Amino acid sequence: MMRTTAAVREFTGDPVPDEVLFRILDRARFAPSGGNQQGWHVTVLRDRERRRHLADLCSATWTRYVAEQVAGHRAYGVIDPAPPDVEVPDEPTPNPFLDHIEDVPVVLVVTVDLATLAVLDRDLDRWSIVGGASIYPFVHNLLLAARDEGLGGVMTTFLAASEPEVAPVLGLPDGHAIAAMVGIGRPVHQATTLRRNPVASFTTIDTVDGDPFTG
Ligand SMILES: Cc1cc2nc3c(=O)[nH]c(=O)nc-3n(C[C@H](O)[C@H](O)[C@H](O)COP(=O)(O)O)c2cc1C
Questions:
Q1: Minimal-distance CA residue to ligand 1 atom 1
Q2: To 5 degrees, how large is the angle CA 47–CA 149–CA 54?
Q3: Which terminus of the chain is more exposed, N or C, with fewer CB under 10 A?
């Protein structure tokens, strides 16, 4: 299943019945989290206007993302980030998911209660990575469970960039953060094989610069 759970951004008009969505959530909840704190919350976004509002906020971020990439940067990177004055077009950059957000069968926003997180790298002098590890296994489980139902989906994070504007729209309490917006439905194109680097390119023995582990 992991070889074929692709990011799906275009969906047929087939609805996803509530009982199927419930099953997906009911399986995803077995995700691990630090201290088993399960700090996730899922908002099922049904209201079309609210969806459009959030998609428009994402669209501005997506437009900047593409502009940073076109200018030769790792978009929204933290190491050597693009300068704030990178040239961003006035017109929004098309995006298959955001442009049709009203028609996506299921749109979920996953948020997390920050008070549940144990962030073991919080005191290091670099960007933290550990906090997200208590929420993204849950988000990925949603995609795996959707795949198991013959559906597809995509995890997106562009909504997080607009958290202050999104908070009143969603009623997001203080101390909670946006982790992802997820679309789920029947894929227009079924994924075949995903392009990923081979094991030996990222696995080494004893030290990070050790010999490649080739099995
Ligand atoms: C943390 C994370 C953030 C992502 N954010 C976005 C996003 O904002 N928009 C989007 O279209 N896809 C997003 N994706 C999907 C990735 O682009 C996708 O997983 C990757 O390109 C591999 O695609 P594939 O599985 O179809 O090969 C995100 C994926 C992850 C894991």
A1: 157
A2: 25
A3: C
> The CATH number of the domain where 138 resides is what?
3.40.109.10
What's the confidence (pLDDT) of residue 191? Answer: 74
Q: Residue 7 forms beta bridges with which residues?
A: 153
Answer yes or no: pTM beyond 0.70. yes
Residue with tokens 């009623």: 171
- Distance between Cα 154 and ligand 1 center (Å): 7
User: How many structural domains does the chain have?
Assistant: 1
CA-to-CA distance for 78 and 129, rounded, in angstroms? 12
Quote the ligand 1 centre to 8 CA distance (angstroms): 9
Say how many Å lie between the CA of residue 9 and the centre of ligand 1: 10
Q: Counting atoms of ligand 1 from 1, which one is nearest the CA of 181?
A: 8
Residue at 93 is within a domain: no
Examine the pLDDT at 61 and tell me if it is beyond 80.
yes
Q: Which atom of ligand 1 is nearest to the CA of 8?
A: 26
Does pLDDT of 118 surpass 90? Answer: yes
